[in-house]
Amino acid sequence: MAEEKRKFGKNLFVIITLILSVGILLYFLFTTGGGIETLARIAKTLRRTWLLAAVLAAVACWLLEGFEINLLCRHMKPNWKFSRSFSAGMIGFLYSAVTPFATGGQPMQMYTLSNMGMDTGMAGSVVAVKTLVYQVVMVLYALLMVATKLHYFQTNVTNFAFLTIVGLFTNCIFIALVVLFMLSEKTTDRILRSTLLLLHRFKLCRHPKARYEKIHSQLQVFHDASKMMGNSAPLYLSVMASAAVQITLNSLIPFFIYRSFNMRGASVTAMIAAQVFVAMVSAFVPLPGSSGGAESSFYLFFGLYFKSAIFPAILLWRLITYYANIVFGGIFAYIGSKMNMERDSQ
């Protein structure tokens, strides 16, 4: 009975998340002038080849997620199969989509890898290193986009400087803390304690000790992961290269949607940069799937390209990059649970 209640609660949370996100999209479509009419007009002239390219780019991102996890898994266990890594990646996409701040993705990947036969410590190392490498590549990618497209977006996007500075600063601080912690745990502890006490003095942090314990435990995960994974430069470079391709393909999806609408003239590099900024800004929205924040930031950065077709573009973009993750991630979660039940019963 308790197990059934737990499952019901988990499913109810997913349902509420989906209703919330769909409700936001429908609100935009039905309450903005010409939203539905524009969608109907575009549907008649939609270039399906470009739309297929957007779908294939999303599928390629799924495969690359599995590939990156598999590179790290095979470093620990040479006989590890790609199918297991791919399943773990898809389950990670599912729980990232239905939990606030995408906090459920990494723990569920660790749980999945452990259920597949990997040692818990190894599973934690794989997921921690994968997360850190992806975060580093994302920040470097964003810095490159800022360097090359700064003037363009400052001119065309309201509050661009504030949004990018907050996003880049937060991510850079996190990465710097992790790296410093790996190099010198004592130095990091002193900096962390001093910073939290200073914030507490200015009434910006209510419980500095509790906050310290939480941050320290998170940093410790990466520290332990780096020791277990070792110092293999070719391995990390391979994962970084794959992550860069993954981010590029994901960032091309809005451009493919743009071309499927029979629109021309926009720079592909500018649209890639816009999607990178959308990803960084929406990551700080506390709702599951960044609901509301993802749509708003897409509107902010892509409104100048899609103009009156911006809301149909948001709908297609969310279908391909968000709802598909839930549907297909759910399928793999169901298959994985069945396989584990069969294995346990043997």
TrEMBL record:
EC number(s) stated in the UniProt entry for this protein: 2.3.2.3
Record InterPro entries: L-PG_synthase/AglD
Chain ranges passing through the membrane: 12-30, 50-73, 85-102, 122-148, 160-183, 235-258, 270-289, 309-335
Reaction(s) catalysed (UniProt annotation): L-lysyl-tRNA(Lys) + a 1,2-diacyl-sn-glycero-3-phospho-(1'-sn-glycerol) = a 1,2-diacyl-sn-glycero-3-phospho-1'-(3'-O-L-lysyl)-sn-glycerol + tRNA(Lys)
Membrane topology: Multi-pass membrane protein
Subcellular location: Cell membrane
GO terms under cellular component: plasma membrane
Keyword Transferase: yes
Coiled-coil segments: none
Domain of life, per lineage: Bacteria
GO molecular function terms listed in the Swiss-Prot or TrEMBL record: phosphatidylglycerol lysyltransferase activity
Keywords: Antibiotic resistance, Cell membrane, Lipid metabolism, Membrane, Transferase, Transmembrane, Transmembrane helix
NCBIfam families: flippase-like domain (TIGR00374)
Recorded family membership: Belongs to the LPG synthase family.
Record-given protein name: Phosphatidylglycerol lysyltransferase
Gene: mprF
